[in-house]
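Marked as duplicate of an earlier ticket. Keeping the data here for the record.
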Amino acid sequence: MKGRFIVAIMAAAALFLPELAEAQSPGSIELGAVGRFGVYDSEVGLENAPAIGGRAGVFFLPNLSLELDWTYAEPDLTDPPGWQDREFIRHELFQGRVLYTHWLGESAGLLLGAGYSYDQYSTPRRIGSRGGGPGGLLGLRYRFNDRFSARVEGTGYYVSEDQDAFIPRPETLNLGVQAGLSLMLRDRERIVEVELPAPPPDTVVVTEEVERPLPEGTPTQLCLATGETVTVYITAQGDTLVGERRVDVRDLGPGVAFAGEYAEGRSWFVNDEPVMFEDLEYVRSGGEISLDCPSIRQVGEFMGVPLFADATAESPYETLYVPVRPGVWQAYQTDLAAVRGN
């Protein structure tokens, strides 16, 4: 009875294999044709023989079904002639089982079945009495599409001894190999992902476009290091607004700068060093002031920063103006009297 243990071990191992394919939906019905080759136990007294038949099953869970096989064979007797000089006997095999399908891929699946099998030997007969016992199945299914599949499987069933029967029945283990085609009457279960269109945006009806009021501010003229005048607006809080939309300079970030080069932050200006121009030394005079661009003109530069003088002044200049930052200037003076006295 080693065959029973091998089938049991293979069936148990299959439960640990990964399942990769989709299952049948409950309620699916399987109908199929079966071709079988029976391998009879030597105690039965029959030669191995082919058989034909059919099967029907219904899925009650995605991978579990109840099915019934019926096959018919006319095996020869191993010790002819038999009853009434017959050389063969009629044998019908009924196999009912619970069948489990464990998918190994998109199309292939392992079949594991267990149930009850019944031998029916038809007259004329002079072999063991009719009877049945537990049976098992191990096989493979290959699915061509959602409707059709092929099956190849090995089966075995055990019939216990019965010496009290009209014809004593020996203990037997009959095996078989069978193959067939199956038809599914319902589609397999699918999970379909449907991409829904994006919801429409909220609808806004514009009846009239109204310009936002400009921020309040006092217009102020700034004289730049380029000699050009720009208009900015100073709010009551002291914020500086620039541009046609009067945007706060702080909101524009560090990427915004007024045109021109300025002395603020340069080492010579921070360290209060003198300005050298036309061989004269000019030193800082007084505090920071504001100037009108029309009243001054550029006369040179020092360390990359432009130098301005009064628009009507002539060289040598007594006073030079250095742009510190937009709109802010610093005067530098020299002692022209001492220069002219030399």
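See parent ticket for discussion. The first strand starts at residue 29 and ends at 39.
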